[in-house]
Design brief:
heterodimer, A: mainly alpha, 14 helices, 0% strand, B: mainly alpha, 75% helix
């Protein structure tokens, strides 16, 4: 088991190197002269030259790359031009907001998609099967920012059930003392049910938006793999032995059907992390995605680069985690490794 | 079902294709519906600016933020521009971005993948490494980074959308070229003295082509979503150019105060276009490759 995790970890290293090289090349592809850009519009040629030397831009590309990797190793992602803050600090402060939203969105989507897929597979061509098909086709066709806006219009403007889509917590509440950075968990630790409810209210609509977007692949995969498992020999044997259909589906089929679904989670995370940026903009969510978007519009590249790098590293690690989880659940994978 | 179609007496290629198309359509009427929608989108893209009732850029402050009416079918925006005209005119730009990016990735990914599958060795390793590196990023995030670095233009949106789709095309083309490398007709061509490049161009490419075309129609929807997402966060298309993503972004501020039509109509247009491309892609796949039908 340990060898498998180690092997899989070694396989992630080329991906991480690729990610670092690409983010480095992206900075060097910036249009125009980065030194002139960092110096500002009013700079003299002399000042630009000084900045060029200071940033190491007069050195060969490979030396610049070495410097970049060295900075990364020290956790230095540069400084934002607009706020003057180090990018690493800002990303660290904002990451919990994005993580809470993404994870809650994923939970929402699993809670809806998995039962839907199972029901659709156990009753082929029933209304619930058609519903599953419609939901999974519509889910991939809906632009995630548009879903968010429609939800805001219906639940905030029309029904008045949801609070205004302005961030993680209503202005009347103070944020709970920082432990994990997840408001839901922190408010529970602080025994503050009111803040918990307020934070949950803010979280539900954006999480639902993300959930609707990502439930399509999960529902589709659950249905397909459940259908395959239900027609397999061991399920037929279990049925023939007179087990109740509940036992057959839940204890026998479900566990085996979940394996391909876990593999799809990698793709789902690619969707979720990207969609996160759009949802954060719609709901003014103070996460790393909206930080990157603000910086993008101000042509402030260091935060964007830090953001792309953080997201890619997280994605590589998530894929690693998924594969390890797969090995834990399915002993056959361990044997092959 | 497909066995019957395959074992039917051989007819000339075109009639057989039409028959098969009619069969697939009758099996799945949704594809016919999607095709009708597609024709509508193409018409709107081609004729849009000539048939709309108002100038999409002309503002009229007296008529600002009016709900849908007989004069303004989709209402007017905060500058009094006609939303219906803007939605229709925007079709051309969105459709162009999607087609251009898909055509670009078809060339890049298709050729790289076919070369990787046919030659193997170093070509294969390099193409595979590039694809793996792209796949290591969440795709939308990588597209954001590329547009931010290369510059905020429509061309770069097209390029970024093509790049993030590259692994998909390269892998499919590689697999298809690889299984045909040792096929009888390739061996025959080689024995009759054709060079590798000639075999690649005249034997392998024409065979991989239809499979990639299906892939193009399947990724069109994603390309439109990606481009609209980028312009929603303020990349690429600049106002006042009518484009669905940017119109939804403009209308977003009015959604909380109840002026729903500003964002809803362009959003719905976007959704319908993506829905149409996805259905059409599925239908086309049934037509070309009946085995993969789900």
């Amino acid at each position: 088991m340990l060898t498998m995790i180690l092997k899989r970890f070694l396989m992630a290293i080329p991906s991480l190197i690729g990610v670092v090289v690409v983010t480095f090349l992206l900075t060097r592809a910036l249009p125009g002269d980065p030194a002139a850009y960092f110096a500002g519009p009013a700079a003299t040629p002399q000042a630009i030259q000084e900045i060029r030397v200071k940033l190491g831009l007069d050195k060969p590309l490979i030396v610049q790359f070495g410097r970049y990797v060295d900075d990364l190793a020290h956790g230095n992602l540069g400084t934002s031009l607009t706020t003057g803050q180090p990018v690493t600090t800002e990303l660290r402060n904002r990451l919990p907001a994005s993580a809470e939203l993404t994870l809650f969105g994923l939970i929402v989507s699993i809670v809806i998609a998995v039962p839907l897929g199972i029901l659709a597979a156990t009753r082929p061509n029933s209304p619930i099967d058609h519903a599953c098909r419609i939901v999974s086709t519509a889910g991939v066709s809906l632009p995630v920012f548009f879903t968010g806006l429609i939800l805001v219009y219906v639940f905030y403007y029309q029904l008045g059930w949801a609070p205004a889509p302005l961030g993680r917590l209503d202005v009347f509440y103070t944020e709970p003392p920082h432990v994990t950075g997840f408001y839901l968990i922190d408010s529970l630790i602080a025994h503050d049910p009111e803040t918990f409810v307020a934070a949950l209210k803010q979280l539900i609509l954006p999480a639902l938006t993300l959930g609707i977007f990502s439930l399509a692949p999960i529902a589709r995969m659950t249905r397909a793999s459940m259908l395959a498992v239900l027609s397999s020999d061991f399920v037929r044997t279990a049925r023939a032995s007179g087990l109740s259909s509940y036992t057959v589906i839940v204890t026998y089929a479900f566990r085996n059907a979940m394996l391909p679904v876990i593999t799809t989670l990698g793709m789902v995370f690619s969707f979720l992390l990207g969609a996160n940026v759009l949802v954060e903009k719609v709901f003014a969510w103070p996460g790393i995605g909206s930080y990157a978007v603000e910086a993008l519009l101000a042509s402030d590249f260091a935060p964007v680069q830090g953001f792309v790098l953080t997201m890619a590293v997280m994605y590589v690690l998530l894929n690693l985690g998924i594969d390890v989880l797969y090995g834990l659940i399915d002993p056959r994978v361990r044997l092959e490794a | 079902m497909t066995d019957i179609a395959a074992s039917a007496p051989r007819e000339s290629g075109v009639t057989a294709l039409i028959k098969h198309a009619r069969y697939v359509l009758s099996e799945n009427p949704v594809t016919g519906f999607a095709f009708a929608l597609f024709v509508l989108i193409v018409l709107a893209a081609a004729l849009g600016p000539h048939i709309v009732p108002y100038d999409p850029l002309a503002s009229d402050t007296v008529e600002a933020l009016k709900p849908p009416s007989a004069h303004h079918w989709f209402g007017t925006d905060q500058l009094g521009r006609d939303v219906f005209s803007r939605v229709v005119v925007a079709t051309r730009l969105d459709f162009f971005i999607a087609v251009a990016s898909v055509a670009l990735v078809f060339l890049m990914g298709g050729l790289a993948g076919v070369a990787a599958g046919f030659f193997g060795g170093w070509t294969d390793r390099i193409v595979g490494r590039i694809a793996d590196t792209i796949m290591a990023f969440p795709l939308f995030v990588l597209a954001m980074g590329i547009v931010a670095a290369l510059g905020n233009t429509v061309q770069n949106i097209i390029l970024a959308t093509a790049i993030v789709n590259f692994p998909l095309y390269a892998r499919i083309a590689r697999a298809e070229a690889n299984i045909r490398r040792e096929a009888g007709f390739v061996e025959a061509a080689r024995l009759s003295g054709n060079s590798d490049w000639r075999i690649l161009t005249f034997q392998i490419l024409p065979n991989v082509f239809p499979i990639l075309v299906v892939q193009m129609s399947l990724t069109m929807g994603y390309a439109i979503l990606n481009a609209a997402g980028l312009s929603f966060i303020g990349l690429g298309v600049r106002p006042p150019t009518p484009e669905w993503g940017i119109m939804v972004a403009d209308g977003a501020a009015f959604m909380v105060s109840g002026e729903w039509w500003n964002a809803t109509f362009p959003g719905a247009a976007l959704m319908i276009a993506v829905f149409c491309f996805n259905l059409l892609g599925d239908g086309l796949r049934d037509l070309v490759d009946p085995r993969r039908r789900t």
